[in-house]
Inverse folding.
């Protein structure tokens, strides 16, 4: 029979919808055999032909091509909407159409979906879609997928691509250099360019943006910034409010914290005067001139004689202000314990002002390098110190080992560690779907849109409810989130959040798993388990490859994984529906001695358990137990059953 004649038969058969076998679905993938080395494929959507092609080669190539065709036209297709049917004109039973098993469809679907996701993710690491590979990075991105698919693992790669746009791609893709990548990522965490939080049911706006908290140092309640506001303030400080630059020498330059006035005073005259007149001032020491005091002892003598103040710290404060700070040293003006509002370079020696315009009499000249415009632009302490906060002492030298040197250098010199461009900042939100998004982000959900950020054409600022400060989101802040679809489907995610984020699906990557460990094909094992989970449950609950990753693959390791992690996870998924678990694991043994199964089952009835059975129902129950010492065969039977069935189907189909 010629190909044209086969085509005519197929067209009549399709017109009569003879390919429909069993439950009707939206999509039909039709493969038609013309001869041993040529097959046709057709894609139908609601019984209308969308695409078709001729595929040279064998049947498996045609089936793969049809699945690729479907995923090209409908990338978000669900497995439950697909039926695959093969046409062979000379079948012995006279029925030309034969429906492929769900396992065949699932294996093809999962394999192609995984490889497509891998290509997309690799392209994203290079900055764009596969066909363009442009260096455009999403401001707001969520990696979503089932557990164990490498979402948190890959967050590091995405963060490093943002922080270092010209990073060596090999560092991100070579598993042998993973430790190097993690070390680089940790350095950015130490410099507070990367911050991390986890959303949960109790996480709130007050934790994320700002809220009223009890402050132990002041024994009172204050408005405290949340993690998102702090990183936005840190990022904003990089690109605004710099007055002068100073390329300091760390070996000869010391850093000092100083307080100027009362930050709680609405009329902050002392701070305003100092900023306007390029000075720093000291309130300790009262109206006494220490110009002729060349050492601390002379300061002490004059202080206790004339200052009318018996507090010993006053002597230390004047000594530090007059002798402890050298010209070209840097002073950092604090705003409470958690913020800084100005940074300056000392340019003059101690001066005494008898008149005291602002009731302070001790001054030194400075060149202000960086000054906040208002409370919204104040620098968080993390940009100045590492794992420290400011002390309440009016003046003291900061230990160099506590300084966030890279951050300070950028604030003061206008250059980051690389010497070019403005620094980027990343906030990583783990389990973003577990929190109440509307409650946590509040009004800021609008501000995170790329075109609503600071400096953009549609820039938006809002007034925060607790502090009353104006607030906006800088363009150099990036939000990376992870989402476990087993906890909550992406379809249930807050609509406002979905519209403002890009999403990358992370599905199991079977290629990273070994195909032979003491006779166990780990790759095929996980593929088979996931195909069955997707059929019995859904694709949001498939199992990720990370469960099976180890530096030293052994049969004992994989048996432990199945016993201690996979079977308990299946119990959670199926709510102890052991019949479904049995189907996934390839059956159950009939006794505890049957070690060729991962689980065993036995029938029990009331007569075996109770002495008096008059009140007990007369029916049997099935009890399941996890095998304590399973063999290799307990794992291989999961996929070998499918291998044999698929081989038989393939042979019959061809």
């Amino acid at each position: 029979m010629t190909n044209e004649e086969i085509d005519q038969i197929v067209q009549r058969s399709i017109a009569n919808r003879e390919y429909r076998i069993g439950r009707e679905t939206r999509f039909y993938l039709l493969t038609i055999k013309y001869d041993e080395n040529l097959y046709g494929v057709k894609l139908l959507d609601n019984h209308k032909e969308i695409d078709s092609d001729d595929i040279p080669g064998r049947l498996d190539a045609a089936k793969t091509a049809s699945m690729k065709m479907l995923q090209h036209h409908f990338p978000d297709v669900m497995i439950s909407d697909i039926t695959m049917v093969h046409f062979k004109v000379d079948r012995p039973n006279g029925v030309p159409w034969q429906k492929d098993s769900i396992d065949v469809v699932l294996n093809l679907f999962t394999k192609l979906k995984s490889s497509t996701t891998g290509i997309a993710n690799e392209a994203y690491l290079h900055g764009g879609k596969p066909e363009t590979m442009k260096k455009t990075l999403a401001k707001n991105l969520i990696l979503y997928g089932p557990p164990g698919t490498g979402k948190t693992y890959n967050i590091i790669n995405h963060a490093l691509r943002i922080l270092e746009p010209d990073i060596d791609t090999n560092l991100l893709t070579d598993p042998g250099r993973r430790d190097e990548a993690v070390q680089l990522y940790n350095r950015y965490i130490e410099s507070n360019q990367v911050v991390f939080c986890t959303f949960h049911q109790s996480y709130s706006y007050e934790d994320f943006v700002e809220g009223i908290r009890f402050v132990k140092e002041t024994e009172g309640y204050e408005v405290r910034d949340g993690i998102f506001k702090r990183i936005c303030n840190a990022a904003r400080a990089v690109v605004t409010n710099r007055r002068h630059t100073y390329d300091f020498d760390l070996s000869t330059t010391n850093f000092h914290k100083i307080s100027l006035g009362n930050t709680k005073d609405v009329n902050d005259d002392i701070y305003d005067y100092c900023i306007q007149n390029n000075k720093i001032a000291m309130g300790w020491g009262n109206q006494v001139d220490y110009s002729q005091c060349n050492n601390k002892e002379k300061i002490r003598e004059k202080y206790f004689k004339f200052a009318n103040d018996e507090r010993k710290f006053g002597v230390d404060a004047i000594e530090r202000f007059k002798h402890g700070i050298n010209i070209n040293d840097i002073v950092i003006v604090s705003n409470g314990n958690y913020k800084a509002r100005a940074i300056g370079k000392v340019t003059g020696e101690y001066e005494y002002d008898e008149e005291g315009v602002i009731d302070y009499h001790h001054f030194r000249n400075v060149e202000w390098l960086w000054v906040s415009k208002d409370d919204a632009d104040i620098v968080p302490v993390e940009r100045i110190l590492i794992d420290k906060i400011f002390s309440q002492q009016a003046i003291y030298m900061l230990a160099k080992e506590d300084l966030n040197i890279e951050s300070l250098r950028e604030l003061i010199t206008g250059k980051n560690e690389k010497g070019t461009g403005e620094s980027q900042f990343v906030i990583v939100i783990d389990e973003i779907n577990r929190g109440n998004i509307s409650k946590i982000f509040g009004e800021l959900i609008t501000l995170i849109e790329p075109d609503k950020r600071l400096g953009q054409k549609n820039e938006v600022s809002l007034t925060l409810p607790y502090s009353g400060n104006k607030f906006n989101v800088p363009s150099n802040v990036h939000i990376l989130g992870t989402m476990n679809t087993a906890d909550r489907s992406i379809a249930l995610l807050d609509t406002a959040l979905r519209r403002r984020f890009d999403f990358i699906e992370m599905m199991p990557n079977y290629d990273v798993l070994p195909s032979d460990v003491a006779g166990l094909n780990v790759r095929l094992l996980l593929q088979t388990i996931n195909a069955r989970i997707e059929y019995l449950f859904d694709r949001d609950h498939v199992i990720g490859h990370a469960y099976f990753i180890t530096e030293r693959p052994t049969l004992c390791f994989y048996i432990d994984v199945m016993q201690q992690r996979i079977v308990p996870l299946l119990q959670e998924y199926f709510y102890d529906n052991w019949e479904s678990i049995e189907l996934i694991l390839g059956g159950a043994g009939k006794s505890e001695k049957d070690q060729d199964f991962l689980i065993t089952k036995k029938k029990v009835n009331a007569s075996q358990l109770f002495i008096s059975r008059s009140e007990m129902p007369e029916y049997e129950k099935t009890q399941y137990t996890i095998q304590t010492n399973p063999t290799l065969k307990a794992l291989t039977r999961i996929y070998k059953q499918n291998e044999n069935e698929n081989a038989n189907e393939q042979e019959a189909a061809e």
User: Anything to note?
Assistant: Residues 102-125 form the longest helix (24 residues).
